[in-house]
Amino acid sequence: MCGRYVITSALEAIREAFGVPDPDFDWQANYNVAPSQMVPVVRLDPSGARQLTRLRWGLVPHWAREIPSGGNGFINARSETAAEKPSFRDAYRRQRCLVVADGYYEWQRRGTAKQPYLIAPPDGGPIAFAGLWALWTKGEAPLETCAILTTAATGGLEEIHDRMPVILDPTDWPAWLAPQGPPDPPPAPWHGDRLTAVAVEKRVGNPKNNDAKLLTPMRTLM
After folding, report:
1. Is 140 a catalytic residue?
2. Which tens digits make up the pLDDT trace of 174-210?
3. Model confidence at 99, in pLDDT bands (50, 70, 90)?
């Protein structure tokens, strides 16, 4: 699964990579993105143009009577079943997005302990997780939320955890965002050998810790 990630690219780099014209987007790096936070995503606006906006991480289906227990919604959706699962199928058909990131954290169990790793492309980001979004209107105010698709880990990353986010190549972004429906077959996610994993401090386990030192490697795994 993906339960924490990192966004460190400058706004200009994000705008250039994703082709979004939002010069006034209020932006600052986030070294420890956690569920329920507002996160930057790219989606199509009603005119079909790409827009950079913020959604709350933790998808709440439009039909839900209330926000799921715990208040976070669904932070991940399995790519293998998202098209059929009631919680995700409507969003999968019509409301797909790109979740902006530079890498993600994952924990490897070692006996009774867990070691966190930062997993990211060696040349830096930004990158895009395949995402779904939904509009929920049964609360006091409309709420827009999102979830990140996951897939089986590959390229050695399965030694850390058996799942990883679906990272889309830029050549697949237009098809993923296309309003006429999801691409068939779905775009192939990045293979894990395109990423590097480094052990980082266990401070990342507390979302209150949010500073650049969280990215400091303890040792290189791969």
Report:
1. no
2. 999 999 889 988 999 999 999 999 999 999 999 999 9
3. very high
Which of the following is catalytic: 2, 97, 144, 146?
2
Is position 66 annotated as part of the catalytic site? no
Domain boundaries, the chain: 4-103+122-193
3-state secondary structure the chain: CCCEEEECCCHHHHHHHHCCCCCCCCCCCEEEECCCCEEEEEEECCCCCEEEEEEEECECCCCCCCCCCCCCCECEEECCCCCCCCCCHHHHHHCEEEEEECEEEEEEEECCEEEEEEEECCCCCCEEEEEEEEEECCCCCCEEEEEEEEEECCCCHHHCCCEEECECCHHHHHHHHCCCCCCCCCCCCCCHHHCEEEECCHHHHCCCCCCHHHHCCCEECC
pLDDT at 124 exceeding the cut of 50:
yes
Active-site hit among 97, 106, 144, 146? 106
CATH of 4-103+122-193, one of 2.130.10.10, 3.40.1010.10, 1.10.287.110, 3.90.1680.10: 3.90.1680.10
